[in-house]
Amino acid sequence: MASKLVTSIFIFILISSVTFSGACNTCTPTTAPPPAPSCPKDTLKLGVCADVLGLVNVVVGTPESSKCCALLEGLVDLEVAVCLCTAIKANVLGINLNIPLTLSLLVSACGKTIPPGFKCE
Prior knowledge:
Order of helices and strands: HHHHH
Radius of gyration: 29 Å
Largest sheet: none
Low-confidence stretches: none
Number of strands: 0
Strand content: under 5%
Structural class: mainly alpha
Mean pLDDT: 74
């Protein structure tokens, strides 16, 4: 009788360990990719940045750049680049533009830099 009980317990433990350990072979923890950066500002308001593009020599602090840059105040370089990229692609500026050149001009007019590796696509 005792041997049947020991055998039953052994079989139960064996089946349990095989069942539970096999169920989690694919349970490796995964990390979600970081969320894509988004613009924390209302992109439609960035239409005022079109005025900056009308200047031949953009000077930081001019009324045209001040209107645009005031909307982007407090944002880090990546957020500024994302906001302006979104505005350019959505054509809220109202003109067809060369995206990399326009982005570079607008970002620098606000005293910011495009982060290395950032692409406006």
